[in-house]
Amino acid sequence: MLTLKLLRDLMSMKGQVITIALVVASASGGFIGSLGTFHALEYARDSFYAHYRFANVFVDVKRAPRSLVDRVSRMPGVVDAEANVVVSSQLRVPGVSEPLIAHLVGVSPTVRPRLNRLHIRRGRMIEPGATLEALVDEGFADARHLGPGSDVTVLLNGVRERIRIVGIGLSPEYINPSQGGAFPDPRGLGVFWVDEERLASAFDLKDAFNHLSVVLAPSASEPQVLEALDTLLRPYGGRGAYGRRDQISHRIVTQEMNEQRVLGTVLPSLFVWVAAFLLNVVLARQIATQREQIAALKALGYANGAIILYYLKFVAIVTACGVGLGIGIGAWFGHFMTGIYGDFFHFPAVSFRVEPELVLIAASGCCAAGFAGALFAVHRVVELSPAEAMRPPSPLRYRRLLLERIGAAHWLPTSVRMILRNLERRPLRSLFAAVGVGAAVALIVSGTFWWDAINYMVDVQFNAVERSDAVITFTEPRSRSVGFEVRRLPGVVQSEPYRAVGAQFRTAQHVYRSAIMGVAADASLRRTLDDRQRPVDVPTQGLLLTDRLAQRLNVRPGDWIQVELLEGARTHRDVRLAGVVKNMFAMLGYMEVGALNRLMDEADTVSAVDVRLDPATRNALFARIKEMPGIATITIKSQSLASFRETSARNVLVFTTIFTLFAATIAVGVVYNSARISLAERAWELASLRVLGFTRGEVSTFLLGELAIEVALGIALGLWLGIGLATLLTNLMQTETFRIPVIIAPKTYVIAILTTVVSGILSALIVRRRIDRLDLVSALKTRE
Prior knowledge:
This protein is of the alpha+beta class. It folds into three domains: 56-251, no CATH class; 426-464 and 641-784, no CATH class; 465-640, no CATH class. A six-stranded mixed barrel has the order 3-4-9-6-8-7. A six-stranded mixed β-barrel has the order 13-14-18-15-17-16. A hairpin with a 7-residue loop joins strand 3 and strand 4. Helix 22 (696-732) runs antiparallel to helix 23. The longest helix has 42 residues, at 248-289.
């Protein structure tokens, strides 16, 4: 009989059951899909690293003899070491007018590398011959529509050389290649694996190397190995050994995966909590409306355990329906996101699977909260004797409103006073309803604000800070007068040189590898701004650090920092911290360019020039630069911005857009269930009002007015909670390369408000229809 009653109750509450199941499905689906995606990517990365022997330590030098590799291999803690030649050069691709960058990596055509091995996705390995052959990384090949059989041209130490692409390759060292920046640039930077002997001959590196990779034993001390490598290679122009953590590609991969981990943990966990909260509240209030039914069952001889088990079955069925649907949603979501990230990371293999433990966690969380709500509500009823429980509950203690006691109620219509009285006499119920709506609003805000934050970051970094159109980098530091030479090139409207040098910052207990930017005090194309876009003066004496780097080193203005310059003579200097600037990108040091030159004991030199271009003649500049061997690379800002939008920004925005849809579903479920339960609880009162002569519209006003106030309170609470949740997410997602600001545009608030209001209107229409069809006789029946 209880099973039959359970089926009938499920059918009579099908609207509520469906919406609760959808909320549970959104929560569990987001949890299963997002965390499953992170686990799939983590497994694919670790497998790639292990199977293709990704090194633990790397060193770049100017020129070192090959004989040193054996000495490195015999160092304590070193398992294997391998050296090669790596050079960046200008690249020409047919049909592309702007200059591109080729990162040329030397490999043997006959002996496969032991470390950082190659995975050939398509085509074949290079072979020796008259034509220089190459493998190209998959990201650049896809962006520029290259494949086996394509020809490109590179500048090898001033000599143009045609390269025939014979295959598409992947390497753990270049999963996300970047020219030293915070983001990968698959459109402007391509990695080419070419014959190492010919590459070494072109750059006078015969029997020498300029890049070293090292694998450590599990028990090895990385700091000791780094120090030993620096000591050994410093005379050969060593630029400082660094671990895998500081390797550019690994840092970008880790950064993206950490974003996925945070978004895949915090947001879905909050969704599960909201779903559990809703399930708890709905069941508690629904069971309270069945007080007399429970008493009748007890009077007929049903034990308390059987009644409790009945409601637990109700919870289990609703949760099972939601989780079952959520598994399907999670599988689709996980496969979709894994495909997007798979295209971004270019792992040899990445596959998503629905993990049973994640299903168990999501189902357990919802079931636990639902069971808690059911047990709490049933416990209060089963404690009563059948005779007492079959009577209606004692009326609430009625008293005048606060507004009435202060004499302000006469300004309000009677209907409004009735609504406010009911809300004030049931404060906890109203609070729970508002909190449920607020949680849904907060989730929408925290899922939508990313568009605002990323657009703000792009505007600040690419328009306010970096106001140039391109950056020209030289093969070797040049005299500062090169700025005037660049200014005379066709298409250049303005030029400003700067000096950038790698540096290792050291304090008593902290070490960090980064760079120092030497800029002119009056620079206008590369400005130093704080987080409020206010100009910050670059010190002519001392060092200016970004705030996160200062925190990393645990220093304050006035403290002294030991700086090891990773170019030239690798000098060590103690520099006073002159100030700290709060910014969004990178962890860098800044100095006036002349002060940096003096710190390095060099003449007035620069390493790159920022330029502003005339759009009408920029192609003439590109053509001229391709003929200048002294220029190593030229980075086009519009190209970098397009790469950023197509990679990191796209991944975050796609992910958060889907979660916003999940949050909107939760908003609908919260509002609809709150309205339906209120109708069930107050059916007797509404029917009484109808009998007393109130119209359907007036009766609807009493109930829907309460719903409107609860939704309005929930929206106000949710907007405030949304700011807090967005702040929490951005704090958890801070990386060494950028910090996402909490920027929430008015349109984001409008989206959250409109979504909730539309949910309320739809719920109100459904409830109004049920009020119009209310059976007065059935509703007014009561047991005395």
